[in-house]
Structures
1.
Amino acid sequence: MHKYYLSLFLLLTQFTSFAQTVKIKGDVTSGTKQLSSASVQLKTFTNEDLICYGFSDEEGNYNINGQIDQSDKFLLIAAYIGYKRDTLIITRGNLLKQPVFQHNFSLTEDKKQLDEIYIKAPVPVQVNNDTTKYNVERFTSPEDRNLESVIKKMPGMEVNKDGIIFFKGKRISKVLLEGDDLTGEGYKAITKNLKPEFVEEVQALEHYVEDNLLKGIINSDDIVLNLKVK
Amino acid sequence: MNKSKILSILFSVFPVVVWAQKGTLNYKLIQDTPFGKNEINYITYFNTMGSIEFGIPKYKINSTETISQTETKGEYKMVVVSNKKLFIFKNLAENKLTLADELSRKRYLISDTLNSLKWRITKEHQKIQDYSCTKAILNFRGRNYTVWFAESIPLSLGPWKFGGLPGLIIKISDSENKFVYELTGIDLKAKFDDGLLNVPQAYQMDKPITHQEFMNVYNEKIEHYKKMSRVVTTGANGSYGTATVILAEKQEKF
């Protein structure tokens, strides 16, 4: 029975040493300015697992608390958009020395970050000499079941009842898959069956010459489509 | 007057512009409805005080027209245009969430709680749209959501009522994939009037109701429709049938 109590006691003490509550507070500023809604996170040093997080209020003050595990080193990170993120490494001892750990962050501006984050949706159509590139995703809507219905929506393209594709009013002779001619004239097999989500780009190539060596030597009026797969 | 004086006057007139957190976000919602998949695009304007989200209409409609009819393959689709735009306004400064929702063409002003979402952040990471994202899960009003947020963008924003994570929400979907939101654009150099971040003028006379009150109105309406669908109507030429109302599922179940 005594043994049982001992193991229970050990188990309980283990638990208490595992989970310990920490409180951290301070402020986030830049120069004389207080930064509101900056994110402050506490992470473990080794795996960068998030322990707890919070945001600074209008006066730039933050106040976070959470339960830490047995790790001996932690990271306290402050981030604000347009500013360099600041990381502080804290040892377990330092973090638990006082009931509330205090740290004030002073961030510096990072103009470059704004340019890096900027996302621009890809251009739907790109014309380069005799190559016209269409971004398939921009023309696809959820109800499109095959590539043909997407091609119908591309400016300059037409598809008739028999599945024959016309580009700028001229009949397309072949549909290539990554530059390879698999079907010849019977390209319907591709355009009617291929799902649009597998294709990244549809390229219309005018004056197409199959043999690269003859390019520029012989004239051709052939138009082919090339499919760039994702 | 010497040069330094002119310079100092110039500087006092045109203060050095410091970049403040401001910009726009674009989200795309793919909704799985009984009529098929429906795509809606949203734009969110944000600054340090909060954010406001509007839907982007699919077709441009003349603002003077009140009711327009568009013919699609013999079917008539009625488009009712109201000057009351649907919106979701997150007021971080006052910690308030105000939004407008629609129920059989009537628009309601609703006040809800902000950032009461109980996120559980996991240790899973994945690259989505070139951002290394962290996975978090959430149970909110009857649905289980999986969200991917990018810590490298320290904005606690997201689509719809979502937000309050230590990074921008890149993708969020519910377990049935009925509501899938995805980030389609960020512009941190967008220029707009800060006055936009307010409850729109058209709602000035409306008194906000709570979310619970709105759900009560919604459930009453559903009961009403259920009763109506059992009524057999007889047409002028002697034909008869029952009325069926098909409604898209609400994102919140309660």
2.
Amino acid sequence: MRITQGTFSFLPDLDDAQVARQVDYCLGRGWALGIEYTDDPHPRNTYWEMFGPPMFDLRDAAGIMAELARCRAAWPRHYIRLTAFDSSAGTESIVLAFIVNRPAVEPGFRLLRHEVAGRTVRYSIESYAVHARPEGARYPGHGEMTD
Amino acid sequence: MEADGVNQVKDASRRYAAGVLKYAQMGYWAPDYVPRETDVLAVFRITPQDGVDAVEAAAAVAGESSTATWTVVWTDRLTACETYRAKAYRVDPVPHIPGQYFCWIAYDLALFEEGSIANVAASIIGNVFSFKPLKAARLEDMRFPVAYVKTFPGPPTGIVVERERMDKFGRPLLGATTKPKLGLSGRNYGRVVYEGLKGGLDFMKDDENINSQPFMHWRDRFLFVMEAVNRASAASGEVKGHYLNVTAGTMEEMIRRAEFARELGSIVVMVDLVVGWTAIQSMSYWCRQHDMVLHMHRAGHGTYTRQKNHGVSFRVIAKWLRLCGVDHLHAGTAVGKLEGDPMTVQGFYNICRDSQTEVDLPRGLFFDQDWGGLRKVMPVASGGIHAGQMHQLLDLFGDDVVLQFGGGTIGHPQGIQAGATANRVALEAMVLARNEGRDIREEGPDILRAAARWCAPLQAALDTWGEISFNYTPTDTSDFTPTATAS
Amino acid sequence: MQIDDLPRQETANPFAAALLDTGIAQLLDQLDRELVGLAPVKRRIRDIAALLLVDRLRAEHGLHGGAPSLHMCFTGNPGTGKTTVALRMADILHRLGHVRKGHLVAVTRDDLVGQYIGHTAPRTREVLKKAMGGVLFIDEAYYLYRPENERDYGQEAIEILLQVMENGRDDLVVILAGYKDRMDTFFASNPGMSSRIAHHIDFPDYGVDELASIAGLMLAQMDYRFDDEAARVFLDYLGRRRAQAHFANARSVRNALDRARLRHASRLLQDPAACADADWLATIRAPDLLASRVFAPEEAPCCKP
């Protein structure tokens, strides 16, 4: 399957030129950019790992694209996203977040149904990749066997 | 009384002698009054009966929405009546419409109960509109002082927190109302919800008249809908929701339904405007305590908001609802099947989303309104819109809006999921292009066609609906544009 | 033949027209007006502008020569205009499309080098990220290289800079600056750095007449003037001060003028004949300058004038 989190997930994966244009859009509006990665794509997993602190005061996309390349080299089998922060009054939150790297295979989520009184069901979602596997060992590389 | 018609009678013995005075003489017309920071202000559009003087009519509106009655009463003198009298301080003729006037009225803060929109409504519109000397009257806009704004908690969630909870940033949210409006069984209803969410929408929606009817009891709807929501969430990895309508006959029943929605794990509930201001405020506080988003459907507003000369403008309703505390509010599409000219609709959106709304006469905003840090309401555009209009919608409304495509999703020739996917792809492609600096107003159709080349559902949507538009002359337009209408 | 020699009619020469169109001609003229002297510097800047302009026109005809390296080294004493010219250079490069954003980030060694292991690389990268799309100006760059201290992390910063100067030529222009002799030593020990610098530009000390012109510009900006005698005395002052140690060119002129203002103000308060009219308030006279220690009989040359 394909996780559709992030602003542009229904479009084909963005190439570097497209990512750089989005970065320029953010810089032009004075937003700080952060790079985050994770191998736990649960929709309620808010805090992905930060690849360095958010970058403030940059004028050009080249610096961020270089950092992104380093993150991809370091964590090729993780989800990586670019997050833009707007500090202006009334917002003070994230204003753009999109995925720029995915594992080669995304097995998806399992829906757990816990039946209680009446017809009520308590739901929870579990990632097949995460299920019983520790961080860093969840997504296979090319040609690796999964057990 | 031989005093002239307009000037306030200052001599107490004459002012309070029994008999009838003109309202302007009673002190309700105060042209030199400078509104205070703490006053509540209102602007009415009045059409006095033939032969009724505009200033007197304005003073009458001020009087009848505060302390006056049709004859002088001695008991006034037991009070600090100067404070409690509303003051009409300005009257202007409406441009291009003879016989109509704007009048500005100031109300002292002491007239209002803190944290009660029911009180505001009862005070301002409770009495005046049936008044015979007026042919017609419309409450156009109000200004609430920060002192009064601060007595309301406001929207329980707000745009920023809603996005943080859903983990969705940088684009409008997408929704659809289940169709047909009535008649589906619970299980079939849930199927429509699953298909729409799975295909790519963020929300699905109960319609305003789905409460609990013989063809589907509310509990069965909630159970099947939440199964659909969770299935779609697992299938996509996204946070999804369905506005479960908790409108009911009594407040207690509404709370009961909301509790069940919460128990089942819904992130959002919905109420209809017809439940009334008091019920809305109660639901708002409940939602904050239980971390739920409150979706407001403005059912019934058209009866009094649509005609330019009589009623209450929707911008006032929007202000009241932001104070009551709603998170989503249907505010118009401008290009869809329901009433709303683009400038006026943008005015409603400003009221929902600004930290400080500014005077903007072409958009119908008569006052600066400082929202005192109150959270922002997410406007909802719903009614006859489709993917082929995505560039217009994004250009008109920006990112902080929920775009609802009911027919535009469920009526798709390849099925509901395809309909949802078409809308989501159209939206993301348009946002991408806009961020890159392209002029989506001009190039929108090209951007859609380019995306349709690799997205068959979008191509089918454009083929089916590409030509549909709803172009009737709007009935409620601003008076302050180069070509004003006289409807 | 140089750009300034080309005929200035509107119709004849397409290059001159293109120079006008990009706004470069105005910038270069502004440079001419606001910076005194610096003839070799201005000539080199005009040459670079010509190169980039021609390059752009070639590209429009499908002739691609590859982006030229424009990393530079400015050498000269303090106060000779190195930082000012670097700022103008950033603007010119931006107008010619050679850098994308045209901002200037000015740093010294301390902004690039860390105090402990692992500190340097992120610091240098932070600075580089901020400078991307513009110009990085490193003042007294030779302090990066401290071979006598084995725990010094400057070498790491140098490595990173070398890499960016080579691979990131589209993203960044680097300008090093400092004293000529120390820069020469630095390049001798760091041939990699030397080979990446395309333009070595020397900023010679100003002559007395040039310093006097600079003083004239500064006075005009401050709404002061010299009377005739003061102007003559000032030339004398410049000649003497220039010969002394720690002369910082334009900066020393600015300091001298500030001290003259001080004495001018004191004189007005003490002179019984003084009037509060524009003439008295704005005119610096010879006594205000003669009070300087530069005119005192010979003492230890390092005393502050």
3.
Amino acid sequence: MPVSVTHSRVIYAALKACDVRIISALPETWLVHLIRMAEEDPEVTLVRLAKEEEGIGISAGAHLAGVNSALLMQNHGFLAAINPIVSLALLYKIPLLMLISYRGSFGEKDPWQTQGGLATEPILRALNIPTWHLTDPDDVTRRIKDAQTLAHASLHPVAVLLERELMWED
Amino acid sequence: MLRTDALQAIYPDIEDKIVVTIMGAVAAELYMLGHKEHFFYLEHAMGLASSMGLGLALALPEHKVVVIDGDGSLLMNLGTLSTMARYRPGNLVHIVFDNESLLSVGGFPTATSTGTDLAGIARASGVPSVLEANTIEQLTTGVSQALAGETLTTLVVKVEAIGPKTFFMDLGLLENRFQFVRALEAMKQKKV
């Protein structure tokens, strides 16, 4: 499977550097290594979700309890979680660190991913969620830390889009 | 059984616990019984109170967390039962008041009114302890047992579809949110 193990390791290390203790996730191809890393890490509680919207509740609970969390989701999972992002995270000023695999964008070969790819950025903009496109492995640590810092300072969700050129090795 | 009587009966057991409620009638009823700063009323995001409770329970393993859910909310997020069952935090007590109705939005009947069995779904999802209560006595026994133990418990309580005269709560959403954080910080300090 040509999902980059090396870059997944860099991303995981960046989450650890942010003192993330709870990671909620729903598996998708680009996220497999990250999810395995979380599963094998005794310092992290991995919560495997039935649906991404649960993850918004779990992160909200963790934040109010003073524990850092992150969400690993595909962009279709982000789309599935919009109501709780609006009516929990935005309503109650809950910071969310969302790492979103950006399927359906340039280079996508799977037709079924393409509508979600087209919808992702307009919806992030509509929700006023600051977004960073993560492409460069040398940039990962800095940007994920910056994303968390902004989320906590603004008490607002932030999105880090994990791009094809970072996650996939063709 | 009226839900407000049920809440009153369990109030002494839950008043010192971290509590997350769903929106609407039940939030207002608990608030009127006596607000505590470690009570959080999730006034939207239907279905997510149990997920918040799971996040709190995983983040604060030394503290008991009580979720007060409802049939309409739980039906919106049935997957939560499988996720809670999977991680089964022993400090989480999930109370579901089932009035077979979306009472806060006009009283339309939910699927539990036509036979959907939430306790059965919880059991089949793997929740390790599932209790049912049709009387105040069964409820108080169940809640005491769940709070005394270390087993994730879902307690389904059948109640009448009758709510409070007013849903007014003199507590801003963000006021509640920031109070709750402070209260949890204080609870954590106390334990240390």
4.
Amino acid sequence: MSTETSRRAFLGIGLSAAGTLLLPGCRSVLPPSYGSLIGLGDTMTFAAHRLLLPRMALAQEFDRSKISAFPAINTTDPKDETYQRHRAANFVDWRLPVDGLVTRPLTLSLEDLKRFPARTQITQHSCERGWSAIGEWTGVTLGRVLEAAGIQAEARYVVFRCYDRLWDSIDLIDAFHPQTLLAYGMNGGEVPVPHGAPIRLRVERQLGYKNLKFLRRITVVDRLDGIEKGKGSLAAEFGYSWYAGI
Amino acid sequence: MGYLEPMTSSTPAAPEHRAAVRITHWVNTLSFVALVISGVAILMAHPRLYWGDVGNDEMAAAIELPLALNLKHSGWGRSLHFLGAWVTLLNGIVYVGSGLVLGHFRKRLGVTSAGRAVDSSYDLPQKLVYLTVVFVLLPAIILTGLTMSPAVTAAVPTLTALFGGRQSARTLHFFLAVAMVLFLAVHLIQVTRAGFGSQVRAMTLGAKRR
């Protein structure tokens, strides 16, 4: 039932997205970079991708033999006290709230996430700096979790908050993409701490910085302008494009 | 019509340029400069080149560029690079489209079946270089750029296969950019030798040769 609701909502959003991108007055699905001169190229890229590229196209998946060395950058062990406590207890009391514009807010444990059907994919992580690495990720698709929570019709974005203080957001097209995972496994084991334990977001059609580590909370929203500085992510506050499908 | 008048002098004279050529030339100048500056800004974040699908600091590089590592400029760098890329693409479509429709390429860059230049403003090597830049280098640099886009390659995986992997595409993109900068250097030398002032005037105002 909730699946039906969210599917219908998703379909409606998809159709209206195609329409509103063509109407300059209507900004509901325009990216937060909209309106700045230097962000104009990123806005055009986002619009072109959403209008021209198949929404469910899958990122290339590789053979196990292609798994490569994988540098861990930025925060590799969050200083946050709560995180350190969870880490010391092997994340048994760690919980992931899924709230916002959902009909049934959830609070998921690692075990809860592992009870969903799992998906494993071997994909390329493309860092904005220019390097890349291939890794295997196992987890539950974000779409399944959002369907379990039942997203409401006004929902437009999914916001993620993390223990390393990063936060970011994606639109519902990437949120419901079949390769967008809440990953608890990497290369056959648990996600190691430097790579984002216990849960790392995988958004395979965007650059590395959208693949947030150390997830803390998931919130479904209708707009981003009321959150922090209204740029949709901490990376955007530092001058990186909100949309990183490039 | 200027083109049809016989050349009375053997010294290279500034050719007349159509408005479409003049406008797209200067728009392209701006976007080219933006692309080079922002390209270097992005490259500074990881001045190592690889071949194949993957490459990172824990792997051997094919080429280590003599460029200081600097992580502070890839954010605005990438945004400016895409702004420049969009302007170049749209401007390029106007340039190539008008060139084909109005016969600019045939008249200026064409070669007769006897191997003689149709228009003697440019000699044969110049024509070949211009044609290569417009119809080989530019499309290749756009395609290798798109191959670095995870969203585009998900939709068009053929691109990754065509260039032998994401990192190969990145390396090719770099060398194609170097080729474009070298072309610009030669172009500026040629323009200077042919008379910088009159050439720039012709490309700006479309002034007749004098």
